[in-house]
Amino acid sequence: MGRSWDEAYRGNPVAAAPTTPYRRTMHSPTHLPRLPRTALLTGVGRRRGIGAAIARGLAEDGFDLALNFFDDYDRRVHDEPSDVELLAQELRESGRRVELIPGDLSDPAVPPAVVDSAGAALGPLGVLVTCHCESVDSSILDTTVESFDRHYAVNVRATWLLLKAFAEQVEPGTETGTATAGGAMVALTSDHTVHNLPYGATKGALDRLVLAGTHELADRGVRTNVLNPGPIDTGWMTEEIRASGAAATPAGELGGPGTVSDLVRFLVSEQGAWIRGQLLYSNGGFASPAL
Predict the structure, then answer these.
(1) Side by side, which strands form the sheet with 38-42?
(2) What CATH number has the domain bearing residue 189?
(3) Cα(150)–Cα(158) distance, rounded to whole angstroms?
(4) What's the rounded Cα separation, in Å, for the pair 48 and 38?
(5) What is the pairing mode between strands 64-69 and 98-102?
(6) 130-134, 177-181, 222-226, 251-255: which range is least confident on average?
(7) Torsion over CA: 141, 159, 268, 60 (sign)
(8) Is residue 184 part of a domain?
(9) pLDDT at residue 95, as a whole number
(10) One-letter-per-residue 3-state SS of the chain
(11) Average pLDDT of the residues in 31-36
């Protein structure tokens, strides 16, 4: 009986490379089927936010967009109304189709309805980017059950339901060429937990479920990644916070919404297709403990 590839490599590295691999070899990432140029983004309520920057970047790359937002959250947390209509106008003027889909993702009926509405407006979706969150500061001693449950509903359950509905629109067998071109999902996360307990704890749960998607949904050609951008100023930083954050990076500067957009654009591109099931840090070397 012949030796396995691993056995041959351990015994003779020079002669190890087989003429016929013992496992199926993926196509080069640049030759994978091209995803439909349609994308659903959640949490795109404000033009200066990360979601808006990602929307602009994907529009430049030729994607038509469905943008989910929740005005009540922007008013409650950011103390300003959503201005996504102005973003949509801007993107439409660039030649892209844009569908606005409001909805409170804490309601379990809303995430699948958002995916359905996006598909009805744009056709099969190729990309899902989840930028939404519930983020209200509280600590171990003062977090309420109501707040914790809402954080879990928005940050974890809604993300699961969105990914589930996104994957269900793609038939198994995608990467063998028997169906459409699969899909790419990127979820934004954070490791900020101290005095932001329900947010950080639920983002940790989000990481696990999204990364599992790459393995569970491989037969549908769906690839998933999680992106931790570090501290990004979308209007919430004081000068003191901005200075201390910049001082915690090797180059002495913080990234912006555009730096997040750049990596998302790569991950959903043909060139980024081989990056799968990864928790990626795009924070400029920001020094932060796991907590």
Answers:
(1) 98-102, 64-69, 38-42, 127-130, 183-188, 222-228, 278-281
(2) 3.40.50.720
(3) 10
(4) 22
(5) parallel
(6) 177-181
(7) negative
(8) yes
(9) 97
(10) CCCCHHHHHHHCHHHCCCCCCCCCCCCCHHHCCCCCCEEEEECCCCCCCHHHHHHHHHHHCCCEEEEEECHHHHHHHCCCCCCHHHHHHHHHHCCCCEEEEECCCCCCCHHHHHHHHHHHHHCCCCEEEECCCCCCCCCCCCCCHHHHHHHHHHHHHHHHHHHHHHHHCCCCCHHHCCCCCCEEEEEECCCCCCCCHHHHHHHHHHHHHHHHHHHHCHHHCEEEEEEECCCCCCCCCCHHHHHHHHHCCCCCCCCCHHHHHHHHHHHCCCCCCCCCCEEEECCCCCCCCCC
(11) 72
196, part of any domain: yes
Beta-carbon-side half-sphere exposure of residue 176 (alpha carbons within 13 Å)? 8
Split at pLDDT 50, 70, 90, the class of 19 is very low
For 259, other C-beta atoms within 10 Å of its C-beta total 17
**Cβ atoms 226, 277 nearer than 8 A:** no
| Pairwise pLDDT comparison (11 vs 198), residue with the higher score | 198
How many other β-carbons are positioned within 10 Å of the β-carbon of residue 10?
A: 11
pTM reported for the whole predicted model? 0.83
Q: Is 125 part of a structural domain of the chain? A: yes
Written as six digits, the tokens of 172 are: 């198994």
User: Distance between CA atoms of 186 and 262, rounded to whole angstroms?
Assistant: 13
159 in any annotated domain: yes
Give residue 113's domain range: 37-224
Q: How many domains does the chain have?
A: 1
